[in-house]
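WARN retry 2 of 3 for item q-0093 after timeout on previous attempt; input resubmitted unchanged.
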Amino acid sequence: MKKYLLVFALFLIGTDYTFAQANTEQEIKQLSLDKWQWMADKDVVKLEKLFDDKAKFVHMSGTWKKDRELEIIETGSIWYKNAEIHDTAVEISGDVAVVWNRITLTAFVRGSDVENEFTVTEVYQKQGNDWKMLVFTFSSVRNTHEIEK
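OK item q-0093 returned
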């Protein structure tokens, strides 16, 4: 009887862990989706809270830190109008989450709309009760690119 209780307890613990992991993945996916909308809306107040103070941003035209990214979004020098997400993968390791989004980005840059295919890598860290973005990197890819899961 004790053996069955032990097996049942281990099953419950494993189920609880799997459920918590799935919830965390969904939370991160939703945060990533929200971030794209905040960027389209130029909502720098929400983005300022999301971006860690030491965050790095890698784009086709350069690499910069949080203040410059927020300035770019606020002024509209790059207006992230729409990110059509084709595929998403999330991996969690402790208090770190990595998100890969394969997207078609429509952005207003240097006076005109442009459309590019990217795989965007986002790295988040759980800090207290909040997730903070540490890294945001655009990698130019072909539209046939797939994210291996």
